[in-house]
Amino acid sequence: MRMDQVKEFYEQADEYCCFISENVITADTVPYVMELLMKLYISAMNLPETEPETTSPLSDISEAVAIRFSEQIPTTYWEIFDPHADKDTVCGDLIDDLSDIAADLKAGMKEYEAGRFGNAVFEWKFGLNNHWGQHIVDALRALHAARPR
């Protein structure tokens, strides 16, 4: 496993989590949030496939992250949940997207900080493929529509 790649992902995850928990997302910061999300997605895709080192996670409870948006940014949006099925639209929520991404990243960050690097990579990669990756894709579409032009 390339530890420099894992460390870089950890730092990107930390930057994202710190930014969204410490700042109000405004029209001016939307492009930066989009950049953070795109970097996370690309970096996570390049993480190695791995199995967890242990079967006992450090915590089964996701850590909630408070996300704040300025009033000028709509937080709900409409999408087709499965683009390969002819179904009705569903309502999405940027607050849910960004906080779920952060909670999933933090689970891997806890493993990384405990020195369980294989577990961290497994958490991040599994989440990319099964949960937070979809939230990034959904959030990017909504943020793209809300960004200043």
Describe the 3D structure.
With 149 residues, the chain is mainly alpha-helical. The chain has a single domain (3-49, 74-146), classed as Protein of unknown function DUF5063 (Four Helix Bundle (Hemerythrin (Met), subunit A), Up-down Bundle). It is built from 5 helices and 4 strands, in the order H-E-H-E-E-E-H-H-H. It has helices at residues 3-22, 30-45, 94-113, 117-130, 132-146; strands at 24-25, 68-69, 76-80, 89-93. The strands form 2 sheets. The protein has a two-stranded parallel ribbon. Strand 1 (24-25), helix 2 and strand 2 form a beta-alpha-beta unit. Helix 1 (3-22) packs across helix 3 (94-113) and helix 3 packs antiparallel against helix 4 (117-130).
Give me the secondary-structure topology:
Elements: H1 3-22, E1 24-25, H2 30-45, E2 68-69, E3 76-80, E4 89-93, H3 94-113, H4 117-130, H5 132-146
Parallel strand pairs: 1-2
Antiparallel strand pairs: 3-4
Please report the total strand number as a whole number.
4
Mean pLDDT: 91
The N- and C-terminal alpha carbons lie at a distance of 41 Å
Number of domains: 1
Q: Estimate percent helicity.
A: 55-70%
Please outline what is shown here.
This protein is mainly alpha-helical and about 150 residues long. The chain has helices spanning about 5-20, 30-45, 95-115, 115-130, 130-145; strands at about 25, 70, 75-80, 90-95.
Structure characteristics:
149 residues; mainly alpha; Four Helix Bundle (Hemerythrin (Met), subunit A); two-stranded parallel ribbon; two-stranded antiparallel sheet; 5 helices; 9% strand
